């Protein structure tokens, strides 16, 4: 088999894997931000808590949009 053709097929095989990992990160990001906000609340660091809550809300809206719900 031609080396170039093999490289094209290998590249095309990794495209669905990259999409799957990207969507996985989109789904996990709001949950991760939620845990960081809870940790900031336990340490009485309210400014950081609000930053993580805002970032989590933004990533949640982005995840809903990218998944086609919004």
The largest sheet is: none
**Straight-line N-to-C gap:** 45 Å
Oligomer: single chain
Spell the H/E element sequence: HH
Residues in helix, %: over 70%
Please identify the structural class as seen in this structure: mainly alpha
Q: Based on DSSP secondary structure assignment, what is the total number of beta strands?
A: 0
Number of helices: 2
Shape: elongated
- Overall pLDDT: 89
Strand content: under 5%
Uncertain parts: none
User: How large, in whole angstroms, is the Cα Rg?
Assistant: 19 Å
Offer a quick outline of the entry.
The chain has 2 helices and no strands. It is mostly helical and 70 residues long.
Descriptive notes:
The chain is mostly helical. It contains two helices and no strands. It has helices at 3-42, 46-66. The model has no long low-confidence stretch (mean pLDDT 89).
Describe the secondary structure blueprint for this structure.
Blueprint: H1 3-42, H2 46-66
Question: Any descriptors?
Answer:
single chain; 70 residues; mainly alpha; 2 helices
């Amino acid at each position: 088999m031609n080396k170039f053709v093999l490289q094209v097929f290998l590249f095309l095989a990794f495209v669905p894997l990259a999409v799957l990992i990207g969507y996985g990160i989109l789904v996990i990001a709001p949950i991760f931000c939620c845990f960081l906000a809870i940790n900031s609340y336990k340490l009485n660091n309210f400014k950081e808590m609000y930053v993580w809550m805002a970032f989590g809300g933004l990533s949640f809206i982005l995840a809903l949009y990218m998944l086609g719900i919004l």
